[in-house]
Write a structure and sequence with these properties.
This protein is α/β, with parallel strands linked by helices. It has a single domain, classed as Uracil-DNA glycosylase-like domain (Uracil-DNA Glycosylase, subunit E, 3-Layer(aba) Sandwich), CATH 3.40.470. 35% of the residues lie in helices and 13% in strands. A 6-stranded mixed sheet has the order 1-3-2-4-6-5, with helices on both faces. A hairpin with a 7-residue loop joins strand 5 and strand 6. Helix 2 crosses helix 6.
């Protein structure tokens, strides 16, 4: 499933994969996963930082517009148990690479979760950059690369598992997007 957003975006939000009962049904990532789902949690943080005009996203034609942001997924189809295999991630990397190539103004990648973070590192490696030591995923981890590649900013994924347990709170996610806005210039 392709991403969506502003083609002039300076911030790329990279998620895991389409949710089986949300994006897989609606055709748009982080859309339609229910009230209080990861899409609503994400859109609220994006709206608070001027990247989205709505705080919820329930269907493709709901009027949501992203400004200076584009949302994509590391994996293109809903994986069993929301756990894509390394092979699935590798197979989808060509699609992510092509999508990112069409977004020439991206300066910051916000990776939602370890899988998205690691997928971005694989893409960077494909482009000839291998950071040493290998960056480790953490919430608000910030990684810069040589060669003019976008800054990588890590965030816990806004899954219900993370938000319901308090591992990721609304202020924590809003802080990530404040930092992304600042880094994107």
């Amino acid at each position: 499933m392709p991403g969506f957003g502003d083609p002039e975006a300076r911030v790329l939000v990279l998620g895991l994969a389409p949710a089986a009962h949300g994006a897989n049904r609606t055709g748009r990532v982080f859309t339609g996963d229910g009230v209080g789902g990861s899409g609503d949690f994400l859109m609220t943080a994006l709206a608070a930082n001027g990247f989205a005009n709505l705080t919820t996203s329930h269907h493709r034609d709901d009027g949501l517009r992203l400004s200076n942001a584009y949302i994509a997924a590391a994996v293109r189809c809903a994986p069993p148990d929301n756990k894509p295999t390394p092979e699935e991630i590798a197979r989808c990397l060509d699609h992510l690479d092509a999508e990112v190539t069409c977004l020439p103004h991206v300066r910051v990648v916000v990776a939602l979760g370890r899988i998205a973070f690691d997928a971005w590192l694989q893409l960077v490696k494909r482009r000839g950059v291998v950071p040493r030591p290998r960056p480790q995923f953490a919430h608000e981890a910030c990684v810069t690369f040589d060669g003019g590649l976008p800054v990588l900013l890590g965030s816990f994924h806004p899954s219900r598992q993370n938000t319901n347990t308090g591992r990721l709170t609304a202020p924590m996610l809003a802080s990530v997007f404040r930092q992304a806005r600042r880094l994107a210039g």
